[in-house]
Amino acid sequence: MFSKDKGIQRKLFDFVDKSGDAYAVFNDEDALIYCNVSFAEIFHSDCKDLLGKTFEDLAKQSYELNQGLRIDADDLEGWLQYAQSVRRSKDFRIYEVNLTDGRWYLFSEQLNDKEELLVHAKNISEQKRLEERIQQSNHKLRQLALTDELTGIANRRCFTSSAEAELNRCWRSGAQAALLVIDIDHFKKLNDQYGHQAGDAALVHMASLIRQTLREYDIFGRLGGEEFGIFLGQADADLAEQIAERIRHIVDNHPVRYEEQVIPMTVSIGVTKAPCDTPYDQLFEKADEALYDAKETGRNRVVVNTIKANSTPA
After folding, report:
1. Do 104 and 125 meet the contact criterion of CB atoms below 8 Å apart?
2. Going residue by residue through the chain (314 aa), what tens digit of pLDDT does each one get?
3. Which of 7, 71, 201, 270 is most open to solvent, judged by the fewest CB atoms within 10 Å of its CB?
4. Domain encompassing residue 222
5. Which CATH number goes with the domain that contains 28?
6. Catalytic residues, which ones?
7. C-alpha–C-alpha distance, residues 167 and 278, integer Å
8. What is the DSSP letter of 31?
9. CB neighbours of 124 closer than 8 A, spacing ≥ 6?
10. Total number of domains constituting the chain
């Protein structure tokens, strides 16, 4: 029975020694007394060169040679102090480590009653790459859910939620806000005369022109069809109307060019100016009414509705 046990021990040792997983044992003074080839390979070294080294030695070697453990720290001593504070702090702990060559390992550490530390590390690089691809796919899906596919700007859902969030934020400062609703004049006629691809080109051109007139923090989106929206937080009394007139003038003077055709465009714009405690639905309703008035009174113009505090729109 005794010789049989020794045979099992040898087999187990041989298995660990040749395993693709990394194994190491540190003594009670944190010096390495055993490691397999896979553990040494993490540090781009041979086992014989690592034996006797402490964890601190291995960390400094990784930092100085930029091989092995990836240590993103300007203060190595501070990093080591933290690492030592958590190392051996529990009988068993598990954590992820990334290496300087881009690989990822799942490390586990287990203490025995002699304060010797068994370290096991498994290569999880493929799982991390899969996680990254999933995260990128999820990010792309979120972007698609919030972005108008044709123009690349916010869709109606994203625009509305962003405007509502900004209203809540600026309400605390007692500021004014403004909403612009912009509609391309005679867009159906443009589609019928030049084709739907030309209409798409006009929408993309329109979005590009408007984006160039706005501040970085203004909220801009496509509300649907040929209709666009702009929300201006903390806008003074004249700013919204100035921006609306600037957009109307730029669109009027920059026709879309499609397949060697020059297609003129104009826009009608409805503007609502109001305190930030005004509900978004009311802002939009009054801007839409102003847009309707702009259409009815000749197009290619700006009409403004002002909502005063505790009053009806003017």
Report:
1. yes
2. 344 567 777 777 788 888 899 999 999 999 999 999 999 999 999 999 999 999 999 999 999 999 999 999 999 999 999 999 999 999 999 999 999 999 999 999 999 999 999 999 999 999 999 988 888 877 776 766 779 999 999 999 999 999 999 988 887 777 789 999 999 999 999 999 999 999 999 999 999 999 999 988 899 999 999 999 999 987 776 889 999 999 999 999 999 999 989 999 999 999 999 988 899 999 999 999 999 999 999 999 999 998 876 544 44
3. 7
4. 150-306
5. 3.30.450.20
6. 226
7. 8
8. B
9. 96, 104, 105, 106
10. 2
CA-CA distance, 231 to 174, in Å (whole number)? 16
- Positive or negative, the CA dihedral 69, 134, 223, 161 is negative
Task: Give the number of C-alpha atoms closer than 13 A to the C-alpha of residue 88, restricted to the C-beta side.
Answer: 16
Instruction: Pull the structure tokens for residue 37.
Output: 């080839």
Which tokens hold the place of 255? 């026709």
> Contact at 8 Å (CB) between 231 and 159?
yes
Supply the CATH number for residue 247's domain.
3.30.70.270
Do residue 90 and residue 190 come from a single domain?
no
Structure pTM?
A: 0.60
Q: Length of the chain in residues, anyone?
A: 314
Q: Is the dihedral of CA 235, 241, 246, 247 positive or negative?
A: positive
DSSP string across 160-200: HHHHHHHHHHHHTTT-EEEEEEEEETTHHHHHHHH-HHHHH
Strand stretches in the chain, DSSP E:
22-26, 32-35, 92-98, 104-111, 117-123, 176-184, 219-224, 227-233, 256-258, 261-263, 267-275, 302-306
- By CB atoms closer than 10 A (0-12, 13-18, 19+), residue 105 is buried
